[in-house]
Amino acid sequence: MRRNEYLDNEVKFLAGVGEVRGRLLGEEVGVRTLGNLLEYYPFRYIDRTRIYGIGEITEEGAEAGAYVQVRARVTGKNIVGAGRGARLVVGVADGTGVTEMVWFRGVKWAEKRLEVGREYVFFGRPHFFRGEFSMVHPEVEPVGGAGEGGGRERAGLQGVYHTTEKLTNAHLGTRGIYNLVGNLWELIEERGVRIEETLPKEMVEREGLMGRREALYNIHFPQSGEALKAAEHRLKFEELLGVQLDILGKKSGREARERGLAMPRVGENFGKFWEEKLPFQLTGAQKRVIKEIRADTVSGKQMNRLLQGDVGSGKTMVALVAMLLAADNGYQSLLMAPTEILARQHYASIMKMTEGLGLRVGILTGASKGAERKEAIEGASRNAGSDKKDNAKPRIDILIGTHALIEDGVEMANLGLVVIDEQHRFGVEQRARLWEKGRSVPHILVMTATPIPRTLAMTLYGDLEVSVIDELPPGRQPVRTYHKTDADRLAVWGFVRREVAKGRQVYVVYPLIKESEKMDYKDLHDGYESIVRDFPREEGYQVIAVHGKMRAEDKQAAMREFKEGGAQIMVATSVIEVGVDVPNATVMIIESAERFGLSQLHQLRGRVGRGGEQSHCILMSGQKLSKEARQRLRAMVETNDGFELAEMDLRLRGAGDMAGTQQSGIAWELKIADLGRDGQVIEAARRAAGEVLGRDPFLEAEENRLLAELRDKYTPKARADYSKIS
Ligand code: ADP
Ligand code: MG
């Protein structure tokens, strides 16, 4: 490392820190060294030239959580209460209005500092109550006093830093941290500390990036609005380049290492299926994706493909065709589903579709017992030729199941293809275990109906090729979606009666959230009771319930009964969320819809609209809704487009919360870039990374030494395995 070692000194040596605060900074926000402090970026900026009049500050005008500053004279101060409950209330006035500043902690200290009659600048977040506001624990500076940032923030933009309660109590609120960074820069300048560039010079020039030193200065002390933008861009680019070098480097390394199993033959299984069994014409999108898969599997490359397709777009058919082609080439396939129900459903439909082809299909789930289990495990490991010799049972060509497949010591004799359905339910670790199942590395097809916004996919699945089914089978009518409240209950039930009278089926879904499981089951139970009351058996209604606490077999039986038309109404927790296929169901009622996330709502809605009839989705909620919940429900009513909803979900919740990101177990430590929002920078970084790696895949050249360091910095430790699996 050439980097100037000065920045590796502990932060406690900085003026204004010391032992105690030094330890706190490390514990609370991970700032241990001077270099860490330099990379502790503001998360937003306030305009320091802007002093608000007290009268101007209104609840409507205030940005949520925004900081403001007022310049006001202290008119009185008062300690209210005593002992631990004591608080200091300071009245202030500025000619436009009066307000109160309040301290619950550091009461004595604040009381001593503030003189009646003197003018101060108060900086903090206004809290509104009945139209009036006050500020709790504002930061205070006497007017004309020190600590105005040494005139660094020429643009008037001052960084606001994340802080914690403990830090604030140690006088390291956002302003305190800001002052520390100011002290650090003074030191850097005084001592002529070098801040090394982390990117090759020619890349900085070609990409038109701000230099690192200048960027670090401007991120803390913006000299102008443009300089701040350029600084942000530079620092984001650096992070995202590190991430992309990591991802793309592993991808090309893997491609160089693993030779794929070649599957050039189009044989009898595929041919016969195509001629005799295919129940419908494939959509253009399905055909295109099959071609893409085929191109991979004949190429001698090992396929790693993510197949995205909205619910109902027909991903299963694509998977089946791929598995038939594998069988034509003498290879076995695994199809993994996230739930027992879904695995059984796949098993039933694939058995039916492959009937008469001479293929052997097996199933193995956690619930598999006795003969089923034995046959799956033995059939999977049997060699293809063995049946000829001893006339034993033939080997299983397609094995379908849940994660029991990878937990139960199944040995595959000649595994060629692994299909993972609804992949976000599978952890990275589970995927990693797949490799041990076969002798050589099989092709992998990961299918998901949770649309992942493109920008996020570039990083999360940056090492997978992506196929998209962007077309629904013909004749589908978009589901109509409505938002209703309990006041509309009678009308909703009336609607259900009319649909049932037409011979249709209805889902009623209740939320199930781990934390409040007990209450949720109670809701489900109460809901079920009241539905049974409203739709009595005597009038010919059959209502069944399915929930997570039922035994697998019972769940199975209930699902089958519903599918076969033995009941018109199914009351369920979100177990039906993934993949259930009952084309005759036309109504989806989602209770307490405000408690579901957007992608979950969209998934649930996808359970209807699978046949030719007009389908309906009714979102039930209480009257009172948070702003965000209201936005979610409105979005559901307005659009059926899964990608649009995913983008919106991303905007509402940020990348960290997106379905798939947590489960994926992939965590890059990003300080400034946002995987969801910085799509353009990601693209630029990805392009730059691709260019460099094209010339020097392992970044071994001396000229790429800096980039190799950057890559290593952004290679998550937890991700060491990831290279193995996807
Ligand atoms: P998903 O992509 O959600 O997994 P499925 O594979 O379950 O969707 O397919 C949804 C339904 O559409 C199934 O009933 C399936 O048989 C049917 N289907 C699939 N492809 C076509 C097609 N090309 N034409 C008509 N129906 C199709
Ligand atoms: Mg599916």
The residue ranges in which pLDDT falls below 50 over 5 or more consecutive positions are: 146-150, 657-666, 718-726
Strand content: 15-25%
Let me know the largest β-sheet: 7 strands, mixed
Number of helices: 26
The geometry reads as globular
Largest sheet strand order: 6-7-4-3-2-5-8
User: Looking at this structure, what is the CATH superfamily of one domain?
Assistant: P-loop containing nucleotide triphosphate hydrolases
CATH topology of one domain: the name is Rossmann fold
Corresponding CATH architecture of one domain:
3-Layer(aba) Sandwich
Average pLDDT taken over every residue: 85
Backbone CA Rg: 31 Å
Bound molecules: adenosine-5'-diphosphate, magnesium ion
Account of the 3D structure:
- Helices cover 40% and strands 17% of the residues.
- α9 (268-277) crosses α11 (315-328), α17 packs parallel to α24 (679-695) and α22 (627-638) runs antiparallel to α23.
- Residues 146-150, 657-666 and 718-726 have low confidence and may be disordered.
- By secondary structure, the protein is an alpha/beta fold.
- β2 (68-80) and β3 (87-93) form a beta hairpin.
- Among the domains are: 49-154, OB fold (Dihydrolipoamide Acetyltransferase, E2P), CATH 2.40.50.140; 268-297 and 314-448, P-loop containing nucleotide triphosphate hydrolases (Rossmann fold); 480-639, Rossmann fold (3-Layer(aba) Sandwich).
- 42% of the residues are buried.
- The site of magnesium ion (MG) has 4 residues, from α11.
